[in-house]
């Protein structure tokens, strides 16, 4: 079981301050020492000293350390939960005897588990770090994270490829496609916007076109149908004159069978308030929406 809360891409890298073995000596190793020098950092966790896979990785990265430091301004630091004395003894022992053979790469001791736990890569049950790698930019932000099985070593080439891609992204603002390598072209990843979303400022600005369309010549028949329907319903409830639509689209009034006081027909020139016109426009819009929905449904059933 590992510690929860693994650091993810884009988050500030947890600050570390540990003792490291560098060239056979104990020195203080901090994240700020690298970022203040405008360096990238490859923080490489490994499970154990005196093991099998770990020395192959450390030797491979150490043999190409100059490619990181001088060509990419990137420091490489290996970190485990071993004590600084264990790491020093391991580094000073020859390869024939299972040691590293005095390599120059920093070996940082996290024997109190603070760093590996802060980065979320501590195997709490075993008390060792996972085989994890974090690439941290000069601003102290985590830009890449990878975690391997304990028995699967990492690739120096792939680490450099990802590092080069991150540097390219920061410098040119373009993305790096699959298998991108230093010197290849990037891909623009920004989407251009075509104007801004425009909204109506008031209810009247939205309703005015509806009203104009409602009273236009092409919509008289629709509007007459709506008014007629409203008056038919009102006649049943209030006993008012009923309006029917004739074959030529005009309105004709006849008295309901129920006696009652007649009400005048609503017309666009009768001086009726704006609220009534608004209501009629809304009714017209609802009828058009229902008609369109029915037509779409009919097409779907035919198919």
UniProtKB/TrEMBL annotation:
Residues 248-272 are annotated as: Disordered. Keywords: Oxidoreductase, Peroxidase. GO terms for molecular function: thioredoxin peroxidase activity. It holds the Pfam family AhpC-TSA. The keyword Acyltransferase does not apply. Belongs to the peroxiredoxin family. AhpC/Prx1 subfamily. This is CTPxI. The lineage of its organism: Eukaryota, Fungi, Dikarya, Ascomycota, Pezizomycotina. The gene is TSA1_1.
